[in-house]
């Protein structure tokens, strides 16, 4: 201080003052040009001590520059200092900037901070010293925000090693008020993909010979990973010690809506917060689940995180494990799948401790007994054993403990478990021997059990082991000396197992059939990988047994007495009289029925021959034969065309005269015949010979004919339980009892779930309807498939509940769809016969194949994120009828369907042309030449084709990067229809556009509302990859066109019913969600369509919107109220900073919204049904709450400038709130609990509204415009409600502008009628 005073006085008293100041500064500049001298000036000054002086140096001494800056007359020094920074070398710049906080006075800090902020934007080399200096300056809030924004702008371009410093500066200077906004900007700017680049460089340099290059690349990778680690350490510190940062980051992620906006960073930060902040765990978990459910956090994102940033997320392993365990308990498949993927990625990316924890957690899930957890955990273990066999072998002891909990596993799960254990046991001989012993012991125990389920599990386990033993081994598996011993040991194990299983199966047909099916599946799954020499012993006996048991020489008469006369049917080889054979079906069925009666007398030593084993045995025979003969089935091709011994099937009018035993016998005979034909089609569908193709198509025709007969027989045989066709279900006796409910309902008169057809598909549809009521976004599944078909009397629908009793069709069967389509409308009888010689499908066969394909795709291809259907309730039975399908991955199934897209497009274009021709002739009823039954069948085919396309393109697997090529192939097929030969080099977005336009062409030919609904869903599935503006416009236009079209059934009646309403609700949502002006769209329907409806007769409908009738009004009303409430939430809340134009625009939007709300609420006076009242009470409250939250702040700030507009808005809303108050009174006098439940919350909102308006007027100094009146309780029509409590009136408060006292607006408030 003494130095500063003396120097200041000297300068001021100098004769040349103020010129001497410039001389002093220029002299200082000359002095500090020397770097060493400049450095000394920046270092603390040390006072000179006289010899012997005891004066101590102060612990803190100022530098010369700092002392000079404290002198007011030298303030130009700061400017000169900053000028020096701009021209000095980088090291000197670094020194100056770092020293600035110590040099500057408080009054100078703001000016320098702005200059440093500019410097930050100019170059990247000074980032660290500039931010270090800025963080030590004391800045006001406005300047701090400005400086922070400068730092934010350099985040995308800053060097990787400087990034942690920049992020630390931003996070350390966040205030609670703007935390969400700052973090949102930081999220957008931070891109971890740039940090992964060195890893990719390393991958590309692996082949380089230069060790120097390789080591430098490795060093680069290490540096990159360390920088990312430092970045997340910075974020972790901020999250732990700054509550605002933690909550703001969660909020920022939550506010991000677009799928493309979400990054790997978001997932890692959520894991970090979950791991660091115990208070935010629930919230983090909730956000993560929500994002997964909406498809914003695809599994690809997580794989990226684990693969590229494993060093970072390894620290969060406890959280990863906890989240994965929680996710596996979820009811939502996407969340469950995400949890399972977390386990797999953690096992692959982390160390042995983490791997052991993962395996332990999975084993715990398996032993928990929860069906979903069991399946998913076993699937994860299966994937791990396939991808990381040697790694998982270390933890085999843990996996083996599952054998102690097998009583909780169903047969399908047993198969998975034994596959896992067998792979571990036989992949490495010595290490796996102890597992082999345990497995042998368990299997022997099960096979010797008398409990059917245990025997079933024993067979499945044994066959799975046989598969592992019989796998062809590479010669590298053991040394040449050890090989013979291993072979003999393996042969012994296989022989023992085969003998043991064979002995246990001989006397029980169902168990034997299961054995055949399991071996057949094994051969199919391990095609080409099994050492069939080991199975020769078994194979030879099979080739001998099948003809002996089931095939006889064809003869005109059959000896024996049976319930029905034997007749040879369905012979396709009638010209071959020599050596003809037949399937001995009816005699075997008779023997089987008699065998049930005389079971105790049967000879135990004789092998049982049952028709139950016919189809399984044939399946095994053809797969074994195909494997032995490189796919050729020439040895058994006689079975394709040979007839069956059945009886005359002309049952029309005869069924009533038959006894119950005879009707049930006939039904069983038909089931066996159908299953035989299904297996024959499975076997020969891929044969290339034209004659065999023709026979396969004929067999398909036989199936559709037999199904029609079976439908009639089942209708006349209530309570009938068919013979089993699938043998690996939960329990052999359990399936009939579950599925007999549908067929038995007609007998006992009970309506378990719904009235309607005999098939339990009606039950399923009704169940879907009830769930749809609460989930308007959920996709319709089976219900839209069966709606039109049930009315058409389609036999397929009647047989829906009997699916478990039919043999499963293989995916290969659908190659038959490559054949053309033949319709009776095109050809007369003579030509029709000729055309049959050409290989073509009929509508019935096409319908049969498409129905089965839809059923399969719905089961295996999980639909897209936003419309995912929860797991079925009956989890134990979900895979019945899908045993073969479940052995394929969803990607394999999707690939198979993509190969079928070309013929499927051909069929769909045929449908389009057919219905366009019908439409031009005035519709079905307008053209007597149209075959009504064929029209219904074609309509059903069209619907199933659209469902097939939708199932494929809505598959959530297409969101994964590895399936992009498959998606491209699929879109290419559709685009090729519009631009043949031009699609090979189109970008993905262009392919999507072309495919969208191709499918849009079908809009004019869809024959039913359900087809229209499915087409719109299909277009959305394609357009969402991604949804561009023009696609939204097209979707809105399409949905409106469907809503404005009259939908008439072939009978001439309007379409209606619960399924129609469900589809209508979704289609209306599509229209309102995709239209560019939702408020205008709602106003159009409510002010044009509904008045038209009010003026029509009872059964009439709106002329503009024919889908709007009195029956569908509640659907329209619910969707419009929900969408109105949702749309106003998108209007930003008012801010003080809003300009007058912005305020006016927001007021205008609110004006339209409130006007729409007023129209809708007043419709309750005309449509006063309970559902409408309930909807109005619920969404009325939500609308008022949204108004309070978003509109009232706007009115606060715009009242003075736009008083008339605000006043008008409030008056209109008051009319609506008055009507809501009347509805509350009506609900109470009706004493309807469902309605009165809404009343308290609504009353609360209405009262809050009163006080909020009062506060708004007080804020604008207009309290005199607010006064209190009396509000009477009235009913819907405005009539006063009188009761013993009528004196306890609610008070009414009204507000008006100072200029309009003559038209007050009412507001409910206070006590109401009790």
Automatic annotation (TrEMBL):
<keyword id="KW-0832">Ubl conjugation</keyword>
<keyword id="KW-0539">Nucleus</keyword>
<keyword id="KW-1017">Isopeptide bond</keyword>
<feature type="region of interest" description="Disordered">
    <location>
        <begin position="1281"/>
        <end position="1314"/>
    </location>
</feature>
<dbReference type="GO" id="GO:0070182">
    <property type="term" value="F:DNA polymerase binding"/>
</dbReference>
<feature type="region of interest" description="Disordered">
    <location>
        <begin position="738"/>
        <end position="782"/>
    </location>
</feature>
<dbReference type="GO" id="GO:0000793">
    <property type="term" value="C:condensed chromosome"/>
</dbReference>
<dbReference type="InterPro" id="IPR029448">
    <property type="entry name" value="FANCD2"/>
</dbReference>
<dbReference type="GO" id="GO:0036297">
    <property type="term" value="P:interstrand cross-link repair"/>
</dbReference>
<dbReference type="Pfam" id="PF14631">
    <property type="entry name" value="FancD2"/>
</dbReference>
<comment type="similarity">
    <text>Belongs to the Fanconi anemia protein FANCD2 family.</text>
</comment>
<dbReference type="GO" id="GO:1990918">
    <property type="term" value="P:double-strand break repair involved in meiotic recombination"/>
</dbReference>
<protein>
    <recommendedName>
        <fullName>Fanconi anemia group d2 protein</fullName>
    </recommendedName>
</protein>
<dbReference type="GO" id="GO:0031573">
    <property type="term" value="P:mitotic intra-S DNA damage checkpoint signaling"/>
</dbReference>
<dbReference type="GO" id="GO:0007129">
    <property type="term" value="P:homologous chromosome pairing at meiosis"/>
</dbReference>
<feature type="compositionally biased region" description="Basic residues">
    <location>
        <begin position="744"/>
        <end position="753"/>
    </location>
</feature>
<feature type="compositionally biased region" description="Acidic residues">
    <location>
        <begin position="1290"/>
        <end position="1301"/>
    </location>
</feature>
<dbReference type="GO" id="GO:0005634">
    <property type="term" value="C:nucleus"/>
</dbReference>
